[in-house]
Amino acid sequence: MIAEILLERCNGCNSCVVACPDHVFDRGPEGAPPVIARLEQCQTCFLCELYCPEDALYVAVGLPRAQLKEDPLGHIRRDYGWDGAEDDPLKNFWKLGPLLREGVQTSSARYARQELETPTATSKD
């Protein structure tokens, strides 16, 4: 769940408003930080934090508010390679291809095995 908008870092670009699939934010006035308007709709997808160029958003899962200042900020952007070291943060997502292919093959094999093990109903004529 969104824990904090760090006002001293926010540049009011509204990238988080655009990135949020659950419409948690409302735009602030021109140049002002956005407003967390619908916190209960937050699905903790981290997209707002990923897209924030200033690391002004902080999403914490189950972290007590008192510990916010102790937890490292901006770790999601860094861990996913979105720390500004590259021009296009999506250009390395091709590396997931083999992993996704393996997942599809594994699930297909399990489904096929399940189909073989499941008895089918026979119709009586």
SSE order and pairing:
Elements: E1 2-5, H1 15-19, E2 25-26, E3 35-36, H2 47-51, E4 57-59, H3 75-79, H4 97-117
Antiparallel strand pairs: 1-4, 2-3
CATH A-level architecture of one domain: 2-Layer Sandwich
Could you tell me the number of beta strands? Answer: 4
Query: Reading side by side through the largest sheet, how are the strands ordered?
Result: 1-4
Largest sheet: 2 strands, antiparallel
Determine the CATH topology of one domain: Alpha-Beta Plaits
What structural class should be given to the helix and strand makeup? alpha+beta
Keywords:
125 residues; alpha+beta; Alpha-Beta Plaits; two-stranded antiparallel sheet; 4 strands; elongated; metal ion binding; iron; metal-binding; iron-sulfur; Ferredoxin family protein
Characterise this structure.
Strand 2 and strand 3 form a beta hairpin. The protein is α+β, with helices and mostly antiparallel strands and 125 residues long. It is elongated. It has a domain of 79 residues: 2-Layer Sandwich (Alpha-Beta Plaits). The strands form two sheets. It has a two-stranded antiparallel sheet with strand order 1-4. A two-stranded antiparallel ribbon has the order 2-3. It is 29% helix and 9% strand. The mean pLDDT is 77. The protein has four helices and four strands; from the N terminus they run βαββαβαα.
